[in-house]
Design brief:
alpha/beta, 3-stranded mixed beta sheet, 12 strands, about 40% helix
Length: about 375
């Protein structure tokens, strides 16, 4: 089950540098000119979670596999993208393919790195991107309205209800507000079906110089206010510092580098963690002598659906899911001890998996 966060922003804000550091491989060119990323690059990034190491230790696992999340480096957007300016059409098409948006804002001054507007202003820069996404969605809904009007005239009742929702969306966008603010399951389902860009959840990343990584600066204060006004999270990162960190091969070297900068963890750990939360994801685990593995599912996933993520046979012949919370599993000392002490529960197919559950599926095919 793949989940994708698209990294977006104006040209030269540090998207590709951030992507390079996130993926740990310098696969995307990070050059000092607009549109250096033309085809979107995709990097699979492990979600930092110390629980998997503890489970592997207790279970004597030969291997450990963390949960993964995909980050997509998308070409820089400019004003007019909704009408095809720059690489607008390709940019918008790439965003439609992701589940959530990571919006990078440039919060550093550097005369050596050009800015499309002359100088960075995170609130203004964010609004350029947001406006283009709003305009693209408005165009999509207006086209949908024209199609629905024709089917309504033919007497299709379901089309009439859809038309009402589309007109509601047009009114909402016309007020300068993204579709994600609209509540209501039926509305959301229709807007997802239409591939609306502003329906996607968003988080902001303030890209700062390494001297501002601790306290930020005036630009990050502006970015924070902008994110807060939209109910979104802001993560402070120095993409250049993270790129230098990614080039170090040994864990000890990376830890020493972070310590020298006065950092307890990489900013990218926070980005990956925030992206995971942004998508409404949880982690469950399987652990045995062969492998301790973290699995990613949406919150609210049932036991039988979780079984299907592990293997289709597990879902097809599902009998039960034996489970314990991570804390209970560790406290008991592993699967056998948890079962012997009666702390391993048996749950049915409709059980909603919780974050941190350690699951053992019973099935028969």
């Amino acid at each position: 089950m793949g989940f994708r966060c698209g990294i977006v922003g104006l040209p030269n804000v540090g998207k590709s540098t951030l992507f390079n550091a996130l993926s740990g491989a310098l696969a995307a060119e990070a050059a000092n000119y607009p549109f250096c990323t033309i085809e979107p690059n995709i990097g699979r990034v492990p979600v930092p979670d110390p629980r998997i190491d503890r489970l592997a230790e207790i279970s004597g696992s030969a291997n450990r596999t963390p949960a993964m999340i995909d980050f997509v480096d998308i070409a820089g957007l400019v004003e007019g993208a909704s009408h095809g300016e720059g690489l607008g059409n390709r940019f918008l098409a790439s965003i439609r393919e992701v589940d959530a948006i990571v919006h990078v804002l440039r919060c550093f001054d550097d005369d050596r790195v050009t800015h499309v507007a002359g100088s960075p202003d995170p609130a203004r820069d964010a609004e350029v991107v947001e406006t283009e996404l709003l305009l693209a969605d408005l165009g999509a809904l207006e086209r949908a309205r024209e199609r629905l009007i024709k089917t309504v005239r033919s007497g299709d009742r379901s089309s009439r209800r859809q038309l009402q929702r589309v007109e509601h969306g047009i009114e909402h966008l016309g007020g300068g507000r993204p579709i994600r603010e609209l509540a209501g399951g039926k509305d959301c389902a229709l807007f997802r079906e239409l591939g609306l860009l502003t329906a996607k959840p968003v988080m902001f990343v303030a890209n700062v110089g390494d001297t501002d990584i601790h306290g930020g600066n005036a630009l990050t204060q502006s970015a924070a206010a902008h994110a807060a006004a939209r109910g979104a999270e802001l993560v402070l990162v120095s993409a250049q510092l993270e790129a230098e960190l990614a080039e170090l091969e040994g864990e000890a070297d990376r830890e020493a580098f972070l310590a020298s900068m006065g950092l307890a963890e990489s900013g990218l750990v926070r980005v990956a963690r925030a992206g995971y939360a942004l998508l409404g994801l949880i982690t469950f685990f399987t652990a045995n002598a062969k492998e301790a593995r973290a699995w990613t599912v949406k919150a609210g996933t049932t036991a039988v659906s979780a079984a299907d993520v592990v293997h289709s046979d597990f879902a097809r012949g599902f009998i039960a899911a034996e489970t314990a919370s991570f804390e209970t599993f560790v406290e008991a000392g592993g699967e056998q001890a948890a079962r012997a002490s009666g702390r391993l529960r048996s749950e049915g197919r409709d059980y909603e998996v919780r974050d941190g559950d350690v699951l053992l599926f019973r099935f028969n095919v």
